[in-house]
């Protein structure tokens, strides 16, 4: 699309940065990863315009010529950057590289509160391996950091640590994944963590996703697993969890399309198993079978 | 015969497919690969940075 003559007019209206990851761990791959961390990108491909002073996303260019041109029309930078913006970026990159290249726990303890999000991400990676307890202690504050790769990692650590004190903050993310570029994935990570950290109060936050019937969304099954785990730890929630799961039997696709039907049936089977139903799972799973199972 | 075709596929086509997953930026605008360089240029010209994120698949 970019070589299209209609788009040549915007070539001079931005600085063009190509960020390619090959996951080799090489210097160029780590350099690309730092850009991803800075912008909170966790899925590919993506393209958008940012302000070089504030790092605010100005517009998503979309995938059509029209959306591209529109994005460039809308994008306005704050002004000719703050004089120290480039120096601050250069210094932050240097601190992040220092952590990448054999940073100590002491340096990471300092870096976890750095003003720069890439430094914080690199510090978190070190502490996750070498001082994980210190992360669990600060979890509430760390979950407030509006950067997806950062929060994914905190959620992963909390899942391992099974820390009930973080349940309320995790529920906050599930209800409203503020500032996320990928809210569904962030919810998945938070719900996974709630599977081990969740308390009786967490059921309400997870329930809408467990009962959504969205058989193509990984969040549905993970929410079901989390509720089952919470119910096992907190028996008083069993009634509410059971009612939620019953509501979650998915509506079979109207056109019976094979891939949708397979996914729908797999979700229904999962719910049937999670409920520990004694009767055999109905074959076929159709509207009538669903109604019966939901009673 | 099948074995030869499989070997040919692995030896020639797979690397080409991998390469097509764009280690090289798309044609068109003057791409930068270095954040610091792009950042400096954007600040000086008062333009936004267009970021294109991709990876090997």
Provide an overview of this structure:
The complex is a heterodimer of chains A (295) and B (57). Chain A has 295 residues and is mainly alpha-helical. Chain A folds into three domains: 5-74, no CATH class; 83-130, no CATH class; 143-294. Helices cover 57% and strands 5% of the residues of chain A. Chain A has helices at 27-39, 65-74, 85-100, 105-111, 117-130, 132-137, 139-142, 148-161, 167-175, 183-197, 203-210, 218-233, 238-247, 258-274, 287-294, and strands at 15-21, 46-50, 57-60. A two-stranded antiparallel ribbon of chain A has the order 2-3. In chain A, β2 and β3 (57-60) form a beta hairpin. In chain A, α5 (117-130) runs parallel beside α8 (148-161) and α8 (148-161) packs parallel to α10 (183-197). The longest helix of chain A is centred in the C-terminal third of the chain and has 17 residues, at 258-274. The model of chain A has no long low-confidence stretch (mean pLDDT 95). Chain B is an alpha+beta fold and 57 residues long. Chain B has a domain at 25-57. Chain B contains two helices and two strands; from the N terminus they run αβαβ. Chain B starts with a helix and ends with a strand. Residues 9-21 of chain B have low confidence and may be disordered.
Brief summary of the model shown:
The complex is a heterodimer of chains A (295) and B (57). Chain A is mainly alpha-helical.
Question: What is the helix tally of chain B?
Answer: 2
Average pLDDT of chain A, rounded to a whole number, is: 95
Largest interface: A-B, 49 and 33 residues
Order of helices and strands of chain B: HEHE
Strand order of the largest sheet of chain A: 2-3
Secondary structure: helix percent of chain B: 40-55%
Largest sheet of chain B, in brief, is: none
